[in-house]
Amino acid sequence: MKRFWTVLTLMLAACIPYVDATSTRYSGMDKFSPIDPAAVQVLDREPKQRHDRLGEVKLNISLDPPATVADIDNKLREEAARMGANAIYIIDGGISAADKQRKLVGIAVRIRE
């Protein structure tokens, strides 16, 4: 009976969309305190305002079942906020057929005020 519940749990977990993230802070950049993820803007291109690039955020996103745009944006905001960034924009993205994942790379930035 215990094995049944273990198998059932694994099958259900396989049906949950996921968004995994790794972040890399650029060396030599000032370190900022983390901020509230709700304050981070997700931009469609590099900002025109003066800004500092703090690091990269790489996402691996499930295709089956697919993650929602809100899930992806939230993960981008969370990772950028940890670096103290107040914005993030996507520089690269694609689908890996071998891994059955979508991959995105974003740059976390601190827009100067």
Describe the structure.
- It is a single chain.
- This protein is α+β, with helices and mostly antiparallel strands and 113 residues long.
- The chain has a single domain (17-111), classed as Hypothetical protein apc22750. Chain B (Translation Initiation Factor IF3, 2-Layer Sandwich), CATH 3.30.110.
- It has helices at 2-13, 69-83; strands at residues 19-25, 41-43, 51-62, 87-96, 101-111.
- It has a five-stranded mixed sheet with strand order 1-3-5-4-2, covered by helices on one side.
- The longest helix is centred in the C-terminal third of the chain and has 15 residues, at 69-83.
- It is elongated, with a radius of gyration of 17 Å.
Compact summary:
By secondary structure, this protein is an alpha+beta fold. 24% of the residues lie in helices and 38% in strands.
Beta-strand content estimate: 35-45%
Run of helices and strands? HEEEHEE
Class, according to the CATH hierarchy? Answer: Alpha Beta
- How many helices? The count is 2
Q: What is the element layout, followed by pairings?
A:
Layout: H1 2-13, E1 19-25, E2 41-43, E3 51-62, H2 69-83, E4 87-96, E5 101-111
Record keyword descriptors for this entry.
2 helices, 5-stranded mixed beta sheet, Translation Initiation Factor IF3, single chain, alpha+beta, elongated, 113 residues, 24% helix, 5 strands
